[in-house]
Specification:
two-stranded antiparallel ribbon, 2 strands
Length: 410
């Protein structure tokens, strides 16, 4: 039995359905790939973290090693000299900075309850006596507010009742006259305890696994200097012969893959060298500015800014927000938060018009908006900080591929 050929409309519908199925299949493959990559990153985090940090250090220290090598210092000796200088500088900075940051962190932890009470009292005062323009805008009328007072108990000790139970059953434990707890209450408490214990055990197991994972990461961090040393030592061999290790025959495809990987490497060098130095300059400026304003925890905020400002805009926003909250709690006026905003504006101005042009120059790197989107997507889809960091080379690869094969100039 033969079927008649489809009409033009039927053919269009069939091809539309096939296209929709193909798109759905591709989306499912991409989702499964992202999920699998997130799982792989979680398993390989103790191995990838040291390699990533060593790679960043190699990017940062390579110009200084090349400088000494141009002065006729053998490359291995130049690497050891740079490591010695970097270790001395890092020890001096951390030795003078870490104790101060630790002291400020301890003081902040001790004062958090007091700061919480201050914020609560000031919020209650604002809500009970809002400014006149805001009161008129929201239609609040404090004179019509009804205050409800509860009668005091005649004897707080003899008539104290504790109500335990759900919405349907309530067990009363009365301490008046020395009466004991009834059996229903004991049964209810035992049931609640039996339901809570598995959750507590699961939480403890998860915490133990997390601590074990971080111990593996710390053990791997001890290998960072070794990885960085060999990255720097084998720089010329890697740069000159890395294409020989591509699992492709000599062809146009291999040349294209080598070009894409080389362009990605250029973007990563620009990002890590430039952004790390810019973050260090921002941290110094924020610390100095907040000290001039009078914020108590300026060194701690500046230390956090070294890591936060690696992410453009978002990191600076969190730094400024933390300083604003501390200024508000510490002084309780509007002048000091306004000065914090002024410090933030000055640092952003210097970063955009002085620091970045001097450090990065005219080299084209990843756009700040692309970095923000990549970090958010990486931490969401791949999970954790490592996913956010690895999203940067993925974004660089996507940018190179799109400009190479999609957004080509005519």
């Amino acid at each position: 039995m033969s079927f008649p050929p489809p009409t033009t409309g039927q053919a269009r519908l069939i091809w539309a359905a096939v296209t929709a199925l193909a798109v759905a299949f591709i989306v499912a493959l991409v989702a499964a790939g992202i999920w699998g990559l997130g799982k792989i990153l979680g398993l390989l985090a103790p191995i990838l973290w040291p390699l990533a940090v060593a790679g960043v250090l190699a990017y940062l220290l390579d110009p200084l090693v090349d400088f000494f090598e141009r002065r006729h210092v053998p490359r291995p000796r130049a690497i050891f000299l740079v490591f010695f200088m970097a270790a001395g500088l890092l020890t001096g900075i951390l030795g003078s900075l870490v104790p101060r940051v630790t002291l400020e962190a301890r003081q902040l932890v001790l004062k958090i309850p007091d700061y919480s009470r201050r914020i609560q009292s000031r919020a209650e005062a604002f809500l009970s006596h809002p400014p006149a323009p805001l009161r008129g805008l929201l239609g609040w009328n404090l004179a019509e507010t009804n205050m409800v007072s509860l009668p005091a108990e005649e004897n707080a000790i003899s008539s104290t009742n504790w109500y335990i139970g759900s919405e349907t059953t309530t067990n009363v434990i009365s301490f008046a006259g020395g009466s004991g707890i009834d059996g229903a209450t004991i049964s209810s408490l035992s049931q609640k305890l039996a339901s809570v214990l598995p959750a507590v055990g699961s939480w403890l197991v998860n915490q133990v696994l997390r601590v074990a994972s971080w111990l593996g990461v710390l053990a791997g961090m001890a290998l960072i200097p070794v990885y960085a040393f060999y990255f720097l030592l084998e720089k010329r061999g890697i740069a000159g012969h890395w294409t020989d290790y591509l699992p492709l025959r000599d062809s146009t495809l291999k040349d294209e893959v080598a070009f894409v990987l080389g362009a990605i490497n250029d973007y990563l060098i620009t990002f890590f060298r430039g952004q790390v130095l810019v973050a260090l300059c921002d941290a110094v400026l924020y610390t100095t500015g907040f000290l001039l304003v009078g914020i108590h925890y300026a060194f701690m905020i500046g230390f956090a800014a070294v890591f936060l400002t690696l992410i453009p805009f978002i990191g600076a926003f969190f730094v400024a927000l933390s300083a604003l909250v501390l200024a508000f709690v510490q002084y309780g006026d509007w002048q000091h938060p306004l000065m914090v905003i002024g410090v933030f504006a000055v640092v952003q101005f210097l970063e955009g018009f002085v620091i970045q042009p001097k450090i990065i120059g005219d080299r084209v790197g990843l756009h700040p908006l692309a970095i923000i989107i990549a970090v958010i997507a990486g931490t969401t889809l791949l999970g954790g900080v490592l996913g956010g960091i690895l999203a940067i080379p993925f974004t660089a690869a996507l940018r190179v591929v799109m400009f190479r094969y999609v957004w080509r100039s005519k």
